[in-house]
Amino acid sequence: MIRYNFKKTAALLKSKNQDFSERSFEFSCGTIKLFFIAQLTDKAALTENVVKPLILHCSSAQKPISARIAIDGIIYSDDCMIQSDISKIENFILSGMAVILFSTDKNYIVVNFKKIKQRNIPSPQLTYSIRGSQDCFVEDLDVNLSLVRYRLKDKNLRIKKFEVGVRTKTSVAVLYIEDIANDTVVNELQKRIAAIDVDGISESGELQSFLLNSKLQLFPNIGLLERSDMAFHSLLEGKCIVFVDGSGLALLVPKTFSEFFHSCDDRYDNKFFGLFSRILRYAALLIGFTASSIFVAITSFHTDVLPIKYAISLAEMRSNAPFTALMAALILEFISELIREALLRVPKKIGPAIGIMGTIVIGQAAISAGIFSPLLLIIASTALIASFAIPDYTLVTPFRILKFALLLFTGTMGFFGFTLFLTFVLIQLVSLNSFGVPYMAPWAPFNFYDFIRTFMSNLTTNPVRPHYMRTKDKTKQKQKTKKSKNA
Amino acid sequence: MKKNSKYLIIIIALLFLAVFASGCWDSLDINEKLIATTIAFDVKNDEIYYYMEYPCIEVGDEGDNISGSDGGKYMTIKGIGENIPDSRESLNKQLHKEPYFSGISSLILTENFAEEYLLEYLYRFRADEHYRKKTLIVTTKEDLDELFELINEKNDSVGFAIDEISDTLDDTGKSFSRTISRLIENLSSEYTGILISCIGIQDEEIALVGYSVVSGTKVIGFIPVAGSNGLVFLKAVEPKFSYIVPYKDINYTFGVSLTRKTTKTYYEDEEIRFDVKCEFKAGLKYGDKKVPYNFDDAAEAAVAKILTRTIKKELLDTINQAQKEFKCDYLQLDDEFRINFPVEFEEIDWQKEFPKADINIDVTFEVSTEWMMDYSYFETK
């Protein structure tokens, strides 16, 4: 145990950290030093609830003051504690707390008057919903926890806190409902978080990279959460949520392939529309991934599948094309990705100009010059639009990369290469798991009930949780009782 | 790490094997192929003429064009040789791109060519995997140069025109068509009797003019379209024709369709007998006079009798023509006999037995007036 020397400790704190603010009080009952970081502290509250009461008490007090006396009868704060470990004083101050040192006591008080300037709770940017609530998570962990607590008043909701990052000491919170969530998943998640040894993390995406099954993993098995209503629904499904202090996006664990196609609106709308929407999203992924490759396969290898009149029309469209179908498709897909990337980075005022330039340059000029055939342009545009139909964009990212590989396979070997590559992708998808849950559930292993539930039913009113989650509590609703004979 | 490297090497090796074993090294973009829409053959002065029609997909796409028109949508070229391979070689020398034959919609053979070279060409066609076996085959008595010139000058394809006409006639029950695959099937059987649609030019348009009779592998005759109703009733899928029936000073037009045909085969004392029962439905369409129509049961019976007599005569004439005139079973009764008496079929010579077979026709009619208005109500008023 480090021997406590009040003056030395105070001097060391100030010398090492020149942005620490220091407030000293010299009284007959002892010397009190208050350390805090001005930029992270609500100075008005600190003055009103700590400085003023201390001055009032100590100016007339005779007995030596101690941390216990101060915390019990002087300081007005609901979030304060007594600590004795000297080595942790600096960490407390760096985390935004105010530390009160007493010359007459080896113990010190840590008071939370953190006030960090941050934005208000915004509307969703990634997962827009028509009917759902519009509040999203922010960078402050406490605010995010409050949003969840506000919706979920279950006594079994557990919040486990971790500190990740040797230098940043970022707070990470894991939420789950204890009597629903699978213990295997919870334990595995906590184990992986506890095992992280890194300088620091600032965003949930960085934490996510430590939670993957393998460093070379391409497909996401962890979801992103932006909205508080989706967080609440996910917890009730038996999932775990990970919040990272400083990040407005939470992580959702586990997440299967089919769940990336679920949107919050599916819960709020008619179940038939939900069915239609999900089929549409699956079709969108298929189109976005395979449309260009199928065009190349038909144009270069398997013209026989086309009726002769279509074949003639296609030949006419490509009559002046300088590139082969494969080359043209690769170039066009590359340009689509360039535009997509540019639109993400461009300032808002210039954004429309990029769109116009893309339309005019690529659409009009390229076709007029005969560089690309109109049909290929339509296919590439449709594929681009289709990729935006998937609710969770993280699933689209690997397919955007694999699309080029599929094009190369198809351009080299026709439908044989197309089928070969798709087989590779399917094998990879089926072999993945998300914290023990099969990634392709309920497709593989096939479960009829979960399959119907994924497509046909409203997830909220469905009485049973998905079987592949292996939750402790499998039912969400009580069984319907038979009508009374007297009724 | 070593284990992972080993797996990686195995996967890469399998991939290379798959790539080299796929055989897909002959890719050629569709615009780099010369898409043939029609192929035709003729024989003149002991030389075989090989015609190929293709669409012009590029500006300035010119060849030694028969039609002689520049900038037309379809062009035709021909190769001449002493035999089929030579004529094809001659054609190939004129092509500026690799030909694509999988899109051919029609194969046209003149009767001169069909008489001598049909068998050889069917074998050639069967051996080449590039041809679609569902290609329509037709014969013609017209000069192919004139035929292609006439149609190509209208920016139309002969092949597509024939294909469309054939589809329309088949769908409306006015005719029946045959594909090359049907002919190729018969190559392996001992007996072949088949009809091939014959096209010609009428009023500067392509039209169906009749049917060429093929016995064995030779064209032995021709049946014109006029008077071939009986043939269509026996061969088409859902044949329909209109008939005018005079009854009580009014000429009534009926739409006659065959609803059911059953054939029973008998073989007794080395005599072959077929009982063919045809059930027809006649729907009254309209009359040619402005009087109230009152079709009672007696009228229906009378009309049915007239139609039965007419149709039965047509059917019997058709059978008589097949047995006596052509001595060729293009009605496919050999299939019926073979199904019921396979052993006996192998022992007899169907070419000789068919003309002697006793074929009976039984025709029944159901007359329907459901779409006609009965004016008898107005008469009583």
Please characterize this protein's 3D structure.
Chain A has helices at residues 6-16, 43-58, 67-73, 89-94, 141-151, 183-194, 204-211, 228-236, 265-268, 271-300, 308-317, 325-345, 351-368, 374-387, 393-431, 448-455, and strands at 20-27, 30-37, 80-83, 98-102, 105-111, 157-164, 170-177, 223-225, 240-244, 250-253, 433-434, 437-438. With 487 residues, chain A is α+β, with helices and mostly antiparallel strands. Chain A has a five-stranded antiparallel β-sheet, sandwiched between helices. A five-stranded antiparallel β-sheet of chain A has the order 6-7-9-10-8, with helices on both faces. The longest helix of chain A has 39 residues, at 393-431. With 381 residues, chain B is an alpha/beta fold. Chain B is built from twelve helices and 14 strands. In chain B, β8 (193-202) and β9 (205-215) form a beta hairpin. In chain B, α3 packs across α6 (180-187). The longest helix of chain B is centred in the C-terminal third of the chain and has 29 residues, at 297-325. The interface between A and B is medium-sized, with 25 and 22 residues.
Shape of chain B: globular
Rg of chain A, Å, rounded: 30 Å
Point out poorly predicted stretches of chain A. Answer: 481-487
Oligomer: heterodimer
Task: Kindly provide the radius of gyration of chain B, computed on alpha-carbon positions and rounded to a whole number of angstroms.
Answer: 27 Å
Count of distinct strands of chain B = 14
Sheet-strand content of chain A, in percent, reads 5-15%
Strand order of the largest sheet of chain A: 1-2-4-5-3
| Strand arrangement, major sheet of chain B | 4-3-2-6-7-8-9-10
Give the topology string of chain B: H per helix, E per strand: HEEEEHEEHEHHHEEEHEEEHHHHEH
What would the average pLDDT of chain B be, to the nearest integer?
86
**Average pLDDT taken over every residue of chain A:** 85
Secondary-structure-based class of chain A equals alpha+beta
Shape of chain A: elongated
With helices defined by DSSP (H or I, 4 residues minimum), what is the helix count of chain A? 16
Largest sheet of chain B: 8 strands, mixed
Query: What is the makeup of the main sheet of chain A?
Result: 5 strands, antiparallel
